[in-house]
Amino acid sequence: MTIPRLLVVDDDPDMRSMMTQFFQKNGFIALPAATEKDVLTHLRAGRIDLILLDVMLGDENGVEICARLRNEQDVPIIFVSALSADHQRMAGYEVGADDYIAKPFNPQLLLARVRAVMQRARRTPSLAYRRRTKTFRFDGWVFDGKRDEVHSPDGYLVSLSQRETALLKVLLANPHIPLKRDEIAAALDVTGSDDKPEAQGRAIDMLVGRLRSKIETNPKEPRMLRTERGVGYIFSAEVTVEEDA
User: Fold this and answer.
1) Nearest 10 degrees: Cα torsion 40, 41, 45, 49
2) What is the C-alpha to C-alpha distance for residues 50 and 90, in angstroms, rounded to an integer?
3) N vs C: which end of the chain shows fewer Cβ within 10 Å?
4) CB-side neighbour CA atoms (13 Å) of 167
């Protein structure tokens, strides 16, 4: 249940902010960037699942940036640009872009195209490893992805509810990444009769509290599932992943 991480690359601060906020509201971790230096900094800092890249970036050219990235990266790239002539689109595809969307655009259409590109990017490995499951190890604990079971460092099976298990999966897939409550809610599809942000936030807080009571030695002073002041929560334990045939 990895939360997808997008990089929004645009030198227009208003457009960059609008796109970042839109994707954050739709269950993504959206990170802003304005230059090639920003892009490389984000790529070195952690996982990026897709890049939304403008063509005209002040003195920089997105097509050239994409060409350089393709020498080292296979991350999906979608151009989002006001330059929409056929030869401009072809230039984008020729350097390895996965899609090209013209400005102005319908945000819902952009969202659909992003999801489609990410699904295509995942399809090959998901088919190759469709019979495999993952085992996660963290701070002496073991989570069996095949059985959805978690074992304590002492070897005891700890009973988790379906929702607690889903939260643990999100945390294990995103270690050391500060996650906002609305990002966690979107990943868990927390909905109900009262879907206001405040209600969702309280539901996540309660769920975190229940999970802490089961995996933390001292739930009041958690070492793994910590509160990140002003943001939400962060899973600070080192996580190793094993692929089981």
Assistant:
1) -40
2) 20
3) C
4) 28
| Contact indicator for 104, 213 with CB cutoff of 8 Å | no
pLDDT at site 12? 93
Query: Residue 73, SS3?
Result: coil
Task: For residue 245, name the pLDDT band (cuts at 50, 70, 90).
Answer: low
pLDDT in tens, 157-197: 999 998 899 899 989 988 888 888 888 887 776 544 345 66
CB 207 within 8 A of CB 163: yes
Beta strand segments in 37-140, E = 50-53, 56-57, 60-61, 77-81, 99-102, 133-138
Q: What digits encode the pLDDT tens for the residues 99-121? A: 899 888 899 999 998 988 888 77
Going by C-alpha positions, the residue among 118, 88, 116, 115 that lies closest to residue 100 is 88
Within 13 Å and on the Cβ side, how many CA atoms surround 124?
2
Name the token pair of 178.
């500060």
Cβ(232)–Cβ(181) below 8 Å: yes
What domains can be seen in the chain, in order of their start residue?
5-127 (3.40.50.2300), 133-244 (1.10.10.10)
Please report which confidence band the pLDDT of residue 156 belongs to, taking 50, 70 and 90 as the band edges. Answer: very high
